[in-house]
C-alpha cells in the first residue's frame, strides 16, 4: 500500500528500465509497506519502557498524569506516550540529518551541477547500498542524491504527523514508525556522506587514510586559531579553501569539535581535532580559539556568551543556529571583518565561502592581542581554595554523572590533583556544577589543570567499506569464523572516557572487525599505550579481522549498515534492489554485527540506533541512554525462538536466542565486555564459528564475572559448538543445566513467519 | 499523608507525577517491611562493590547480610557476581539490571526460585539515573509488586525509599536494619 506516492510515480523515480537488478517488493516504502516486518521484529524484541516523565504536557487538555494505568484526556496510556516521545526524538534526529543532507547536496549542486557523477573510486562499485535497498534506485549523480532527500522529507511529514494529539494510539505502531524513522535516517545519512565525499573530494577507496592530530594539546595556540563546531563542514572546508588560496594554510590553525572536525580532517590533514563534543565548554573556556565558526547540531546554545567571556570572535554559519545575531551574508566582507575586529560584533553568515574568509581574516587580526591558554596547577589550586565545602554538596547534586567534585576540590586546594584527574575522565564538562555552586566555583576551568596536553593520533574517516573487503570477509562473517563486527559509535555521554579505547582494543585483539565513528572514534584515539601509541597506530585500518577503522563522522555511520547490506548483496548475491525485508532478515540471522553507542546522548543517536535495529543489528547503549526511555528486549528463557528453515519450508523451534536483544542498556564496561560477544552470535553460525564466538564469550565472562556464563546452555546448540579448550568444564555444566541438543536448520529466516509479500524462496541464494 | 520523596540527592531524578516513594526514616519500619514480604528479592548493583564505609565494609557486605538474615534470594547485576564469588557467596540469580526488571514486570514470571514472582524488590548499588528509570518501569508496569531503594541518595520512583543520608548515617541505617532483622 502506498500512502503518498502513486505506484507510477515510484516506478518513474526508480527507473525500472535500468536493469541492474530485479525490482523487489518494496520500492520507496512508506509506513505501511514495512509495518509487518517491524511488527515481526517487535514480536521477538518487545518494547520495554522506562518512563522518564510520568506526565504528558503536549496539549492543553493536560498536563495528564499517566501513572500506573491512568490514561490522558485523549485516551493515551503511559507506554504509548513513551513511544510517542521516542518518535518525537527520532523525527528530530531524522530532521537534523535530513536538513544537513539537504543543505550539503543543494550547496554542492550549486557549485558542481546536478549531473555531477558519483564516483567512489576503484574499490567501491556498490556506491549506495542503503539507497539501493530501501528505494530501489542507484543515485548516480548529485541530482540522484537530492531525490533521496526528497523521499525522506515526504516520509518525515507522516511520521511527525503521527505524534499530534489524537493520532496514533498504540505503542507498537509508534514503534513501527520509530523503526521507519530510523531507516530513513540511515538512508539520508548515506546520501549526505556520499555527497560530501564526491563534492569535496574526501578520501575514498583507500583504507590507509592519514593519521591526523587530535587533542586540545595539539592545537598550536601561537598561531591564529579558528575552531569549527558542529556537523556540516561546508563552511569549515570553505575556510580551508580560503587559506589555501591565500597561502595561509600553515599560518592559521584550523581545529574542530564534534563531526565537523572529522570532516574537515578528511578535507585537509593539517586540520586538528580538539576532541569530542563533551569537551566543548572545556575548550571554549580556555580561550585558545580566536574565532569560533559554528554550523549545526550539538553546538552549545550559549556560545555567544561563552565567546564574549574569552574575547573570541563568533560566526554562526547555519540557518539552524542563528543565536539572534545580525545577518551579514550580504554585507561587504571588509566591513564585516572590521566590525568584528574593532567592535567585537558577532554575525550570522549563511554563505560558507564568506564565512570561511571572514573567519580566517578575523583570526589573523585578533590573535596577536589575545591572551589564551590553559591554567596551571598553581592557579587551579588558588581557585579550588574557593570551595567552601558546602554541606549540601551542591556540585554533586547537580552533576549528571554523579561526581564527588568536593573531594576533588579539597585535594586540589591542598595541591594534590590525582582525584580531580580521575574525575575529569568521567566529567563531560557541562558546567551544571558551577551553576549550582554557592560560590560559582569555575570547576570546568579548574579541570584545565589536570587535562592531558598530549597530542594523539586519529585515523581520519575513510567513508564506505570497499567491495573487495566485503568479498574477503563475507564468508567468514557469515560462517562465524570472524566472530563479529563491533561498531563503537555515537556521542560522549559515557560513564568514563577510557572505556571505548579499551573495549575497541579488546575486540580487535580477539580478531573482531572493529569500526568506529563520530565522537566515539575521537574518544578512542585519546588513549595511548606504554609505547605512546593509540589504537589507530597499532591496528591496521582495513575492514578485516583484528583491524580498527574509522568510517568518519555521524553521517558515515551509514557505511557500517552499508557494509552489512553488502555482505548480503555482494557476498551472498542476494538482490538488494527494493528488497528491504530479505536483506534485513539476512543481516539479522547471519551477519554477526553489534553496535555499541556507549555515550549516546542526542536525538540523532536515538534515531541511528533505531535504524540499525530495523536492519537487524543489535545496539548496546551506555547507562545514560536509559533516558531514551525505550529498549527492545527478549526474554531468552520464556520466548518462542521459532524461525523458518528457508530450504525446507519448515518452522523450527530453535530455542536459540540469537541475537538476544535489539536495543539494550548496560551499566558497566565489564558487563558490556561480556555482552558484545553474545550479541554477535547468529543462528547461521557454523559449529566452528560458534565455537570461536563462544570461546570469546566464555573467556571474557570468566574474566569479568568469575565463572562460566550463567546462560551458556542457551547458546550451545550441539556439542560441536563447544570450544575445545573449555570442553571439560562446559560438559558437566550442561549436564547440570539439563541441556539438550537443539534442533538444527540449514537456512534460518523470519520470512514465512509473518505476513509478507516476500516469497520464501527469495531468501535462497 | 506521609512525606513523598520528590527531590532526591541527584537532581536528574526529580519526580514529575503524583505517585512517589514513601520515605522510610526508621530502619525498624524498613526491617518490618522486609520481614513481612513473602517472596522478596535483593537486586545488587556494581556501586555496592565500590562503596566502602569508614569501617572497611562495602555496602555489598551489608546487602548480603540482610539477604542472609531473611533468606532473601539475590540477583547480581552488572559484574557483581565476581565479587560475590570472591566473598564465597553464589548469587541466586545473575541478570543485568534491565533484564531483571523486564522479568519482574511480568506478573506470571516465576521468580528466581521458581516459586512465583517476587512481592518486594530491594535495590541497592545501581547507578542513580539507571536505577530511577528501572524503578519507573516497575512503578508503571508492575502493580503486582513493591520496590524499595536502599540508596543514600534516595529514589522517588520506588515505593519505599531511604531518606537522603550522609555516609555515616547510611552506615548507621544499615547497622540498625541488620540488628532489627537479627531479632
Ligand atoms: S496529548 Fe493526551 S495525554 Fe498528552 S496532555 Fe494532551 S490529552 Fe493529555
Ligand atoms: S561539569 Fe563535570 S563535574 Fe560539573 S556537573 Fe558537569 S559532568 Fe559533573
Ligand atoms: S558546590 Fe561549590 S562550595 Fe559546594 S562543595 Fe561543590 S565546589 Fe565546593
Q: How are the secondary structure elements laid out?
A:
The complex is a heterodimer of chains A (765) and B (183).
Chain A (H helix, E strand, L loop, with lengths): L6 H8 L20 H10 L1 E4 L5 E2 L7 E2 L12 H35 L16 H7 L6 H20 L9 H30 L10 E4 L10 E5 L4 H12 L7 E5 L1 H9 L4 E4 L4 H7 L4 E4 L8 H8 L2 E4 L9 E2 L5 H11 L3 E2 L3 H15 L10 H8 L9 H5 L6 H9 L4 H9 L5 H5 L6 H5 L8 E4 L7 H13 L5 E4 L10 H11 L3 E5 H8 L9 H4 L9 E5 L5 H14 L8 H11 L2 E5 L5 H12 L4 E3 L8 E4 L8 E4 L4 E4 L9 E3 L3 H11 L7 H19 L6 H4 L11 H10 L11 E2 L16
Parallel strand pairs in A: 5-6, 5-8, 6-7, 8-9, 9-11, 10-11, 13-14, 13-16, 14-15, 16-17, 17-21
Antiparallel strand pairs in A: 1-18, 2-3, 4-12, 19-20, 19-22
Helix pairs in contact in A: 2-6, 3-5, 3-6, 3-25, 5-6, 6-23, 6-25, 7-12, 9-10, 11-12, 13-15, 15-16, 19-23, 20-21, 23-24, 26-27
Chain B lengths: L21 E2 L3 H10 L3 E5 L2 H4 L8 H11 L4 E3 L3 H7 L6 E2 L2 H8 L15 E5 L3 H14 L4 E4 L10 E2 L5 H16 L1
Parallel strand pairs in B: 1-7, 2-3, 2-5, 3-4, 5-6, 6-7
Helix pairs in contact in B: 1-7, 3-7, 5-6
The complex binds iron/sulfur cluster (3 copies).
One iron/sulfur cluster binds next to helix 14 and helix 15 of chain A.
Amino acid at each position: 500500500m502506498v500512502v503518498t506516492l502513486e505506484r507510477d510515480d515510484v516506478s518513474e523515480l526508480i527507473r525500472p528500465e535500468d536493469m541492474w537488478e530485479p525490482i523487489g517488493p518494496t520500492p520507496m516504502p512508506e509506513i505501511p509497506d514495512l509495518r509487518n516486518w517491524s511488527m515481526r521484529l517487535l514480536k521477538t524484541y518487545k518494547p520495554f519502557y522506562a518512563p522518564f516523565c510520568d506526565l504528558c504536557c503536549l496539549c492543553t487538555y493536560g498536563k495528564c498524569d499517566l501513572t500506573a494505568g491512568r490514561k490522558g484526556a485523549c485516551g493515551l496510556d503511559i507506554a504509548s506516550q513513551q513511544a510517542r516521545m521516542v518518535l518525537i526524538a527520532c523525527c528530530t534526529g531524522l530532521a537534523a540529518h535530513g536538513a544537513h543532507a539537504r543543505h550539503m547536496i543543494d550547496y554542492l549542486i550549486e557549485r558542481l551541477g546536478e549531473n555531477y557523477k558519483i564516483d567512489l573510486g576503484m574499490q567501491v562499485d556498490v556506491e549506495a547500498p542503503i539507497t539501493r535497498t530501501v528505494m530501489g534506485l542507484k543515485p548516480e549523480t548529485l541530482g540522484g542524491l537530492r531525490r533521496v532527500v526528497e523521499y525522506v522529507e515526504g516520509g518525515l511529514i507522516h511520521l511527525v504527523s503521527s505524534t499530534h494529539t489524537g493520532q496514533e494510539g498504540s505503542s507498537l505502531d509508534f514503534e513501527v514508525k520509530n523503526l521507519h524513522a530510523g531507516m530513513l535516517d540511515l538512508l539520508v545519512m548515506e546520501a549526505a556522506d556520499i555527497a560530501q565525499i564526491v563534492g569535496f573530494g574526501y578520501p575514498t577507496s583507500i583504507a590507509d587514510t592519514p593519521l591526523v592530530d587530535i587533542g586540545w594539546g595539539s592545537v598550536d595556540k601561537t598561531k591564529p586559531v579558528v575552531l569549527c563546531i558542529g556537523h556540516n563542514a561546508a563552511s569549515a572546508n570553505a575556510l580551508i579553501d580560503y587559506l589555501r588560496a591565500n597561502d595561509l594554510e600553515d599560518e592559521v590553525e584550523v581545529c574542530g569539535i564534534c563531526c565537523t572536525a572529522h570532516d574537515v580532517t578528511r578535507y585537509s590533514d593539517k586540520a586538528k581535532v580538539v576532541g569530542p563534543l563533551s569537551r566543548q565548554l572545556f575548550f571554549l573556556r580556555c580561550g585558545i580559539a580566536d574565532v569560533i565558526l559554528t554550523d549545526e547540531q550539538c553546538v552549545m546554545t550559549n556560545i555567544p556568551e561563552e565567546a564574549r567571556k574569552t574575547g573570541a570572535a563568533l560566526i554562526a554559519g547555519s540557518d539552524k543556529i542563528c543565536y539572534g545575531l545580525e545577518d551579514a551574508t550580504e554585507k561587504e566582507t571588509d566591513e564585516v571583518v572590521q566590525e568584528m575586529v574593532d567592535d567585537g560584533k558577532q554575525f550570522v553568515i549563511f554563505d560558507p565561502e564568506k564565512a570561511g574568509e571572514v573567519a580566517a581574516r578575523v583570526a589573523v587580526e585578533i590573535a596577536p592581542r589575545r591572551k589564551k591558554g590553559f591554567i596551571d596547577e598553581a592557579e587551579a589550586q588558588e581557585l579550588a581554595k574557593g570551595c567552601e565545602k558546602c554541606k549540601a554538596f551542591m556540585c554533586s547534586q547537580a552533576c549528571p554523572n554523579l561526581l564527588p567534585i568536593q573531594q576533588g576540590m579539597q585535594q586540589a586546594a591542598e595541591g594534590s590533583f590525582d582525584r580531580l584527574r580521575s574525575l575529569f575522565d568521567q566529567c563531560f564538562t557541562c558546567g551544571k556544577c558551577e551553576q549550582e555552586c554557592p560560590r560559582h566555583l569555575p570547576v570546568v576551568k579548574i579541570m584545565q589543570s589536570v587535562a592531558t596536553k598530549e597530542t594523539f593520533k586519529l585515523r581520519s574517516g575513510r567513508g564506505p567499506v570497499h567491495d573487495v573487503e566485503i568479498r574477503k570477509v563475507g564468508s567468514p562473517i557469515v560462517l562465524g569464523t570472524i566472530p563479529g563486527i563491533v561498531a563503537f559509535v555515537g556521542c560522549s555521554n559515557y560513564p568514563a572516557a577510557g572505556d571505548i579505547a579499551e573495549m575497541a582494543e579488546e575486540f580487535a585483539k580477539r580478531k573482531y572487525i572493529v569500526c568506529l565513528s563520530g565522537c566515539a572514534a575521537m574518544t578512542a584515539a585519546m588513549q595511548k599505550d606504554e609505547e605512546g601509541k593509540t589504537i589507530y597506530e597499532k591496528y591496521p585500518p582495513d575492514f578485516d579481522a583484528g583491524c580498527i577503522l574509522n568510517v568518519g563522522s555521524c553521517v558515515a555511520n551509514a557505511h557500517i549498515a552499508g557494509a552489512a547490506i553488502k555482505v548480503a548483496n555482494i557476498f551472498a548475491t542476494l538482490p538488494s534492489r527494493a528488497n528491504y525485508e530479505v536483506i534485513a532478515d539476512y543481516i539479522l540471522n547471519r551477519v554477526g554485527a553489534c553496535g555499541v553507542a556507549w555515550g549516546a546522548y542526542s536525538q540523532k543517536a536515538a534515531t541511528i540506533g533505531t535504524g540499525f535495529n530495523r536492519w537487524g543489528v543489535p545496539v548496546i547503549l551506555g547507562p545514560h541512554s536509559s533516558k531514551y526511555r525505550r529498549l527492545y528486549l527478549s526474554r531468552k528463557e520464556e520466548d518462542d525462538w521459532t524461525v523458518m528453515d528457508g530450504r525446507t519450508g519448515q518452522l523450527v523451534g530453535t530455542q536459540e536466542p540469537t541475537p538476544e536483544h535489539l536495543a539494550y542498556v548496560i551499566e558497566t564496561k565489564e558487563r558490556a565486555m561480556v555482552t558484545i560477544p553474545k550479541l554477535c552470535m547468529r543462528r547461521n553460525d557454523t559449529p566452528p564459528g560458534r565455537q570461536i564466538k563462544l570461546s570469546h564469550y566464555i573467556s571474557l565472562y570468566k574474566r569479568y564475572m568469575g565463572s562460566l556464563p550463567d546462560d551458556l546452555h542457551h547458546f550451545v546448540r550441539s556439542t560441536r559448538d563447544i570450544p575445545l579448550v573449555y570442553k571439560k568444564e562446559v560438559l558437566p555444566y550442561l549436564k547440570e543445566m539439563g541441556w539438550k541438543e537443539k534442533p538444527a536448520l540449514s537456512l534460518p529466516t523470519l520470512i514465512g513467519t509473518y505476513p509478507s509479500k516476500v516469497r520464501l524462496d527469495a531468501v535462497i541464494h | 499523608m506521609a512525606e513523598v520523596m520528590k527531590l532526591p540527592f541527584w537532581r536528574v531524578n526529580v519526580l514529575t507525577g503524583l505517585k512517589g516513594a514513601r520515605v522510610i526514616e526508621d530502619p525498624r519500619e524498613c526491617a518490618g517491611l522486609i520481614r513481612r514480604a513473602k517472596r522478596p528479592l535483593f537486586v545488587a548493583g556494581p556501586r555496592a562493590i565500590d562503596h566502602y564505609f569508614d569501617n572497611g565494609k562495602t555496602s555489598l557486605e551489608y546487602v548480603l547480610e540482610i539477604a542472609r538474615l531473611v533468606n532473601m534470594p539475590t540477583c547480581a547485576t552488572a559484574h557483581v557476581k565476581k565479587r560475590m564469588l570472591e566473598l564465597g557467596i553464589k548469587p541466586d540469580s545473575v541478570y543485568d539490571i534491565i533484564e531483571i526488571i523486564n522479568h519482574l514486570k511480568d506478573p506470571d514470571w516465576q521468580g528466581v526460585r521458581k516459586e512465583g514472582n517476587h512481592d518486594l524488590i530491594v535495590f541497592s548499588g545501581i547507578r542513580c539515573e539507571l536505577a530511577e528509570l528501572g524503578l519507573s518501569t516497575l512503578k508503571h508496569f508492575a502493580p503486582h509488586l513493591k520496590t524499595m531503594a536502599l540508596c543514600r541518595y534516595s529514589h522517588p520512583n520506588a515505593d519505599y525509599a531511604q531518606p537522603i543520608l550522609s555516609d555515616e548515617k547510611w552506615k548507621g541505617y544499615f547497622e540498625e536494619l541488620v540488628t532489627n532483622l537479627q531479632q
